[in-house]
Amino acid sequence: MVFLKKSSVLILPHQKSIRNWTSSIDGEPGFLREVLDSLSKLDDIDKHCNLTFDSMSIKKQILWGVKEGKFIGFCDLGNELDLEGTETLATEALVFMLVSLNGKWKLPIGYFFLNKITAVTQAELVKTALTLTDNAGLTVWGITCDGAYSNLATMKILGCEFENKKYDDIKCWFNHPVNNSKVYFIPDACHNLILAGADWPGVLMCRSTPGRLNIWAAGPPRRGPMNIN
């Protein structure tokens, strides 16, 4: 960024200008009401979307927020919720984002500072996200996340069933908490391949056929045979 500012390739605004622009928006942790209000004004055809969420590790640190007038860096779910204690340092940020199915927009609708979130808490946040998007007139057809254990446990709490079942018996959807429509769970395919690589060292080739993914490995599996359907 420093190189770009000092060159004529791309003229960027000063950091203070960016801070002034962003300070006019309520960007506190929690669900972003202003974003949802903006999405509610879209045409009906552009209101079909998919909900994605993921967590990322952040550095443990305490900073003084000049605008907030308080120390920041602790667990914060917004809306004055206190599920993990205000004195617990946050180790990760959980972000919810909507991705349009018919249009070209994608926007974050909320973020939370946490310390190893539980599946129960995450399931409640998903329900809240679906409720708020429904209130904004948006139609969420599916949810995408990676294959972390807490995410799979969250989907089971919401109503999905995909353990110890035959392929045809898998239930990859759950009922919407407001309108009772089906919301489909769509696992992150790229992350699933990473998990497959961990179980099958030295993967040589992957071939996709309708409804099935075949993997050939150079070495024996670490935890027994695995089929990905």
UniProtKB/TrEMBL annotation:
State the organism of origin. Schizaphis graminum (Green bug aphid)
- Transposable element P transposase-like RNase H domain ranges (all copies): 28-159
- One Pfam family assigned to this protein is TNP-like_RNaseH_N
Specify the protein name: THAP domain-containing protein 9
Q: Report the gene name.
A: THAP9_72
Q: Which InterPro entries match?
A: TNP-like_RNaseH_N
User: Organism's domain of life?
Assistant: Eukaryota
